[in-house]
Model the fold of this input.
Amino acid sequence: LKLKVVDIKAQSKTTYTNTVYGYSIELPEVLAFREAEEGRKVGLYVAGTTPPDFDLSTDPITFTLAVKVENQSLEDWVNSQYQANVDYQVKEKLNLEVGEGAVRLKGMPPGSGSEACPADRTFLARGSNVIILTLSCADLAEFAQLYEQIVESFKFLEP
Done:
């Protein structure tokens, strides 16, 4: 799938808000969203297209919810769930002032599920909730730019 080359930052945006898990993102107009499991999973796909199936994990960008022990740091939780050089190639701590910060894992190998190419995941947490933003094919430059824009726009709603 090829996206038309446009100035992504100049596009108009809408705000997607997940009131169940308390966060919002700015959604570029080129993307549309769909939800499953009462907002625990969100898939982003190219607006104006029809997703190939009901499985949100096939969407280029997905959000999922995980749970951690409330007093456990986000980085400790990520380390307990993923193993370096097996589950990912690079770990970065992002400089985002949101919740408990953000951690990104890059170069996650294709899985046995719907992931056909390497993925990147960004983890954000507040309290016991961990929001996982996944870019399914991190080597697709068009989606990578959109993903960065979405990550930078992420906000937790006021409690």
Summary: Strands lie at 13-18, 23-28, 31-36, 41-46, 61-67, 90-94, 102-108, 119-126, 129-135, 155-156. The longest helix spans residues 141-153. The longest strand covers residues 119-126. The chain is about 15% helix and 40% strand.
